[in-house]
Amino acid sequence: MIRAVIRGMPIDTPVQEILQDLDELNIHAEECHTMTNKRNDTPMPLFLVTLKKTDDNKEIFNLTEIYSLKIEVEALKKELGPAQCHRC
């Protein structure tokens, strides 16, 4: 599975429109979600896209525009190690 994060789009962008636009570009996403802040559960201008690992879908990392908006696409960074302790 490929998990990519799209930056640079407004928070209120409908997820279905993103999926349709990616399909038109021959990138077949399985899921798309608006990412939320862990502390206060507010939406962020980041969209998490899950795709199958194919050569066509790897092209998502070369995208620079969707809907005439400049975007950045990067791989999802996994958190390393345990959560930080705030008791000390």
UniProtKB/TrEMBL annotation:
Annotated Pre-C2HC domain residues: 15-83
Organism (species): Nephila pilipes
InterPro entries reported in the protein's UniProt record: Pre_C2HC_dom (IPR006579)
Any one Pfam family match given in the protein's UniProt record, by short name: PRE_C2HC
Protein name, per record: Pre-C2HC domain-containing protein
